[in-house]
Amino acid sequence: MYQARIKIVLFYFFSAFFILLNTFFLVKNKSMIVNVLPLIFFIVMLAVYAFDALLFLVIFCTPISLQLSEIVPGLSFDMSLPTEPLLFGILLIFIMKSIASGKFDREIMTHPVSMAIYFSIFWLFVTSCTSSMPLVSFKFLLSRLWFIVGFYLLTAKLFESGKNIEKFIWLYTFPLMIVIFYTIHRHLGYGLWDKQAANFVPNPFYNDHTAYGAALAMYLPFLFGFSFTKIYSPKVKIFVHIVLGILLTGIILSYARAAWLSLIVAFGVWVFMRLKLKFKPLFIAVCVSLSLILVFQTQILMYLERNNTESSANLSEHISSMTNISSDASNLERINRWSCAIRMFEDKPIFGWGPGTYMFNYAGYQLTADRTIISTNSADGGNAHSEYLGPMAESGIFGLVTFLILISVVIYTAVHTYSRTTDKRMKTIVMSALLGLVTYFVHGTMNNFLDTDKLSVPFWGFTAIIVAADLYSRKVIQPESSSDTPK
C-alpha cells in the first residue's frame, strides 16, 4: 500500500514538473522543445527494457524519416531523423554491452559474410586515415558502422532460428506504402504520366526517384514470394496481393529505369535457380559475353550513339532511352560522373581520396566535353552514381575489391542455403532476400545509396536474413544427418 502511494506521488510530481517546465519554455522562449522529453524518455525505456522493439522502431521509421535540412534549412551538416540519432545510440549500447559481457553470437561474428564485412570496414578505416578529408571520411565510416551493427549484426541475431523475418519485411513495407500513397497523391496534381514530376514527388521522404524505385524493387521479390507460396492462408495471400499491386503501381510511376532493369535481371536469376542450371556453363557464357563486348566495344558504342530516344512518359520510349548516350542528359551525366571517378582512381589507385569525399573532389576531374546541362560548375551535385566506381575512387582498388568480395560471399551463401534447406518457408525467404539484393547489385552500377538509411535497411537486413537462414539450416540438417549414422 505504501509503495503504491509513493508511485502515485511520484507520478503527479513529475507530471506537474513537466507541465511547469513546458509552460516556462513556451512563455519565456516560445519554444515547444520540452514536448520532446516524453519521447526521449520512451526511447530510453525501450533501450533499457525492450532493445528489440527499439530496433524495430528504427526500421519502421526509416521509409518516413526526414532529412534535418528539410526541417531546419541552412545547416552545415545533415542527418536523417529520427533514424540516425537512434542508430548512433544503438551503436553505443552495442559497444557497451559487448564490452560488459565480452561476447556476442559467435556463429554470426565468425560467419564468412561477417568476415567479408570486417575486411571492408578495415579498409575503410585505413583509407580514412589516408583521406584527403579525414573528418568527412571518419564520419562516413561511423555511419557505415551504425548501419552494419543495427541492420546486420543485431537483426541477424533477431532472425535466429528463422524468427522475426516477416516482421522485419512488413515493418518497412507498411510505411513504404504510406510513401507510395503520398507520392501518387502529389503526382496526381501534375498528371500521373508526367515523367518530370516523378523526379521530385517522393520528396521529402526520398530525395530522389531512383532511390525510391530502388527501395520498391528490393521489396517486390518478397511480395511475389509471399503471394505464390503455399504456406500462407488464403486471407493472408489476398492481403499480400493487394500490397503487391500497390508496390507495382509505385514502381511503374517512379519512372526509375534502373529499378525496372534490376527487376528483369532478378527475374533471370530466379529462372536460373528454379531450373537448377549448372553454374559452370553460365560462368562461361558470361565470360564469353564480356569478351565479345570488349572486342566489339567500338561498334557497340557507335550503335548506342545512334539511339536518340529521350526519357519520357511513354513507357516504351522511357525503356528505350536507357541506352541513349547521345542526348539523354541523365545518362550523359552518369557517364560524366563515372569518367571523373576513373580519373580520380588513376591519380590515387591504392588508397583513393578517402571514403565519402568524391563529391568534394571530382570538380577538378570534370572535362568540358563531358559536362551536361545538369552538371554544376562547382561539381557539388552528389556522388559517383556507382557502388563500384565510387568506392574505387574513394578507397582505391581494394575499395572495389572488398565490395565485390562481399557480394560474392553473400551470393554463394544464399545459393547454397537455398539448395540445402527443405523448409518451403525458408526457401521462399532466402530466394526473396537474394533477388532483392540482386536488384541492388544491378542498381549499384548506376546509383549508390548505401550511405543512406533508406537503402541500408534492406541491403544489410537482407544480408542478415541470408546469414541467419544459413546458420539455421545447418542446425536443422546436422541432427538429421547424425541420427542416420550407425551406432
User: Secondary-structure element order, as H and E?
Assistant: HHHEHEHHHHHHHHHHHHHHHHH
Number of helices, where a helix is a run of at least 4 consecutive DSSP H or I residues: 21
**Biggest sheet: strand arrangement:** 1-2
Radius of gyration: 25 Å
Measured by DSSP, the beta-strand proportion falls in: under 5%
Number of strands: 2
Give start-end ranges of low-pLDDT stretches: 481-487
What best-fitting shape do the alpha-carbon axes yield?
globular
Structural class: mainly alpha
Distance between the termini: 63 Å
| Proportion of helical residues | over 70%
Average pLDDT value? Answer: 83
- Biggest sheet statistics: 2 strands, antiparallel
Textual characterization of the structure:
This protein is mainly α. It has a domain at 49-67 and 81-289 and 379-474. The protein has 21 helices and two strands. It has a two-stranded antiparallel sheet.
